[in-house]
C-alpha cells in the first residue's frame, strides 16, 4: 500500500485538467484556421502527444512532491529506551475555547509537535472519552500516529463523560509485557473526570516503573459549554483546568513523573527533553523495517516524460 508524507501536494494533479482544456482549445482553433493546410493534422498529433507526455510528467512530479512511501527496507538504527504512549482526552470539555483555538485543537498541535521530534522513539495513541481506546499501538511508523492525532474529535466516540483512569489503564497495557524500563505515558487533559478515579491506577504506574507526564490544557478561569442534563435539556456548564488535582496525580505517580501546563512558555521543549533522554542502559543497535521514500524514482519519471514531450516537439520541428 502506498502512503504519502505530504498528501496535500497531490492536489496539484488537478492542474492537469485546465492545461489539457487549454490545449484542446488551441487544437480546435488550429483546425478552424488552417483546415486546408496539409501539415495541420501532423501538428495537432504532435500537440496531443506532447500534452500527454507533459501531463504524465506533471503527475509524477506531484507524486514526488507528496513524498510517496512504498515498500520497506531494513536499516540499522540506535533505538532509545523510551517508548511513549500519548493519552489524549477528547471529551466535550476539551472543546472549550479558553485557550486558542480550543483545548483539543491546541492538544492536537502539541502532540504532533512532540511526535515529529521523536523520530527514533516508538509512539502510540490512546483516546479518552467515556472509556479509553487504543487508537494506534506502539509503532515506529509515526505517520499513522500523526494522522490519528490530526483527526481527534469528541465525535470519534459516542460515550459520554471522561474516564481518565480507564484511559491510563489502556495506555499502560499498550506496552509489551517484556518491556521493563523506558516507558512513558503523556496524558493530555483538562483534568475533568466524570467516571473512574485516577488514584486507583497510579500504584500500577509506580510498580511497573512507568513515567507519567501530565500536560494540562485550559485555564483555571475556564469557560462554558452546552451539555444535555438527565432530562435531555440543554444546560450551560462551566469547565476549568483542574491544575491542582493534576499536579497531585503526577506527584503520586513517582518515577520522574511531572505536571506542566501547555500554556507555559517552553513547556513543549521541557516535555521533549524528558522524552528524548530515554533509558541509556537499554539503548541498542537494532534492525528495523522502514518505509522507503520513492521521491527520486518519481522525479526521474517526471523528467523522462518532460523530455519526451520536448523531443516530440523538436522532432516535428525538424521535419518541417
What labels describe this entry?
single chain, alpha/beta, Rossmann fold, 6-stranded mixed beta sheet, 9 helices, 41% helix, 24% strand
Q: What's the structural blueprint in terms of helices and strands?
A:
Layout (H helix, E strand, L loop, with lengths): L2 E2 L11 H18 L6 H26 L2 E12 L3 E7 L13 H14 L5 E8 L1 E9 L2 H9 L13 H10 L9 E7 L12 H6 L2 E7 L6 E6 L5 E6 L3 H11 L4 E4 L5 H11 L6 E10 L1 H25 L1
Beta-strand percent range: 15-25%
The count of domains is 2
| CATH structural class of the largest domain | Alpha Beta
Largest sheet: 6 strands, mixed
Number of helices: 9
Residue stretches low in confidence (pLDDT < 50, at least 5 long) are: none
Distance between the termini: 47 Å
What's the CATH H-level homologous superfamily of the largest domain? von Willebrand factor, type A domain
Number of strands: 11
Describe the model.
This protein has 320 residues and is an alpha/beta fold. It folds into 2 domains: 3-72 and 291-319, no CATH class; 81-282, Rossmann fold. It is built from 9 helices and 11 strands. It has helices at 16-33, 40-65, 103-116, 142-150, 164-173, 202-207, 243-253, 267-277, 295-319; strands at residues 3-4, 68-79, 83-89, 122-129, 131-139, 183-189, 210-216, 223-228, 234-239, 258-261, 284-293. It has a 6-stranded mixed sheet, sandwiched between helices. A 3-stranded antiparallel sheet has the order 1-2-11. A hairpin with a 1-residue loop joins strand 4 (122-129) and strand 5. Helix 3 (103-116) packs antiparallel against helix 4. The protein is elongated. The relative contact order is 0.17. The model has no long low-confidence stretch (mean pLDDT 86). Keywords: Cell membrane, Membrane, Transmembrane, Transmembrane helix. Pfam families: VWA_2. Residues 83-275 form the VWFA domain. InterPro entries: UPF0353/GerABKA_families (IPR050768), VWF_A (IPR002035), vWFA_dom_sf (IPR036465). The chain crosses the membrane at residues 6-25, 52-71, 299-317.
Amino acid at each position: 500500500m502506498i502512503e504519502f508524507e505530504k498528501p496535500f501536494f497531490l492536489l496539484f494533479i488537478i492542474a492537469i485538467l485546465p492545461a489539457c482544456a487549454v490545449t484542446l482549445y488551441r487544437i480546435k482553433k488550429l483546425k478552424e484556421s488552417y483546415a486546408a493546410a496539409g501539415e495541420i493534422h501532423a501538428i495537432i498529433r504532435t500537440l496531443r502527444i506532447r500534452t500527454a507526455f507533459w501531463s504524465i510528467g506533471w503527475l509524477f512530479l506531484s507524486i514526488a512532491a507528496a513524498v510517496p512511501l512504498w515498500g520497506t527496507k531494513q536499516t540499522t538504527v540506535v533505538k532509545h529506551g523510551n517508548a511513549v504512549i500519548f493519552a489524549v482526552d477528547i471529551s466535550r470539555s476539551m472543546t472549550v475555547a479558553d485557550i486558542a483555538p480550543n483545548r483539543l485543537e491546541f492538544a492536537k498541535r502539541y502532540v504532533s509537535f512532540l511526535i515529529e521530534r521523536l523520530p527514533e522513539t516508538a509512539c502510540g495513541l490512546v483516546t479518552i472519552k467515556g472509556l479509553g481506546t487504543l487508537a494506534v499501538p506502539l509503532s515506529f511508523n509515526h505517520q499513522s500516529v500523526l494522522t490519528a492525532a490530526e483527526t481527534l474529535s469528541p465525535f470519534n466516540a459516542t460515550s459520554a463523560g471522561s474516564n481518565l483512569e480507564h484511559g491510563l489503564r489502556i495506555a499502560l497495557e499498550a506496552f509489551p509485557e517484556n518491556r521493563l524500563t523506558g516507558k512513558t505515558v503523556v496524558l493530555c487533559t483538562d483534568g475533568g473526570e466524570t467516571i473512574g478515579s485516577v488514584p486507583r491506577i497510579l500504584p500500577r504506574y509506580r510498580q511497573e516503573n512507568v513515567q507519567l507526564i501530565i500536560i494540562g490544557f485550559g485555564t483555571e478561569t475556564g469557560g462554558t459549554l452546552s451539555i444535555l442534563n438527565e432530562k435531555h435539556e440543554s444546560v450551560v456548564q462551566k469547565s476549568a483546568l483542574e491544575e491542582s488535582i493534576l499536579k497531585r496525580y503526577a506527584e503520586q505517580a513517582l518515577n520522574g513523573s511531572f505536571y506542566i501546563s501547555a500554556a507555559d512558555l517552553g513547556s513543549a521543549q521541557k516535555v521533549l527533553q524528558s522524552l528524548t533522554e530515554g533509558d541509556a542502559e537499554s539503548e541498542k543497535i537494532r534492525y528495523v523495517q522502514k518505509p522507503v521514500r520513492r521521491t527520486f524514482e518519481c522525479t526521474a519519471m517526471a523528467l523522462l516524460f518532460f523530455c519526451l514531450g520536448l523531443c516530440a516537439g523538436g522532432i516535428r520541428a525538424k521535419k518541417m
